[in-house]
Write a structure and sequence with these properties.
about 250 residues, alpha/beta, Rossmann fold, seven-stranded mixed sheet, 9 helices, about 30% strand, globular
Length: about 250
């Protein structure tokens, strides 16, 4: 394709709201995830806060064929998650429940868009930037630590990739995952740069906590921005064990 033709095509795509660029694996977040999985010889992905299985489905689409274990507290989302995983023999859906720092039961607030649902109250900042995140009801759900939740689902010798997307409850997930983290090589955790849920620790707290435990911040990815101002509100942080310790 000539330079002039490329410019015409790019201009037409821009006008339609699209952008044309050369594919570079180094800038593809999913390619980086798969690379981390290969480097660390990971054999199971722990999908905490799975919703209906978007993360797991994306991994499958990118070529990952290893084990996935998904955890989801919402009854409606969990039912859909079970249907989405039913024909995949290496994708396990754990019994419905939230993951946190203790075992028992907890009330979870259900948002209009489902994916913003949280144990924590929503903040004014999130309600303003994403009105569809507003809560419409609440429901009780079992609560388990990740250490308890993986019992019988993950082999003690497994090497895990841990993804945490629990809408402000991420620090609590880490607090209940002491034993699981010992056999985890990569963590991908959603963090907030501003308070989106009442009482949630922000990204600095997550970074300081994991770096203090010997994890290396490997990558930072855009997750959610205010659609009006463009301000970055959430970012996915990827932490890795050093390869020498793999």
């Amino acid at each position: 394709m000539s330079l002039a033709l490329r410019k015409i095509v790019r201009a037409l795509l821009n006008q339609a709201g699209w952008e044309l660029h050369r594919y570079r694996p180094a800038s593809d977040p999913w390619a980086l995830v798969l690379d981390q999985i290969r480097q660390h010889r990971i054999d199971v992905v722990l999908d905490v806060g799975a919703n209906v299985g978007q993360f797991a489905s994306e991994l499958r689409g990118k070529g990952y064929r290893g084990r996935i274990v998904s955890f989801e507290p919402l009854s409606s989302a969990h039912a859909t998650l079970l249907r989405n995983a039913e024909n995949d023999p290496t994708w396990t859906v754990a019994p419905r429940g939230a993951i946190g720092s203790s075992n028992g039961e907890v009330m979870i607030n259900v948002s209009q868009n489902s994916v913003s649902s949280s144990v924590l109250p929503i903040s004014a900042a999130l309600a303003q930037s994403a009105p569809e995140a507003s809560y419409v009801r609440s429901e009780a759900t079992p609560l388990k630590t990740l250490d308890r939740a993986v019992e019988g689902l993950v082999e003690p010798t497994s090497r895990a990739f841990l993804k945490i997307d629990t809408q402000g409850f991420e620090y609590e997930v880490l607090n209940g995952a002491g034993e699981t983290l010992k056999r985890t090589a990569v963590i991908c955790v959603e963090t907030s740069l501003v308070p989106l849920y009442s009482g949630q620790p922000l990204w600095r707290s997550i970074v300081e906590r994991l770096e203090g435990d010997g994890w290396v911040l490997w990558d930072m990815r855009h997750a959610f921005s205010d659609p009006t101002t463009g301000q970055l509100l959430q970012a996915d942080l990827v932490f890795s064990r050093t390869i020498s310790g793999a």
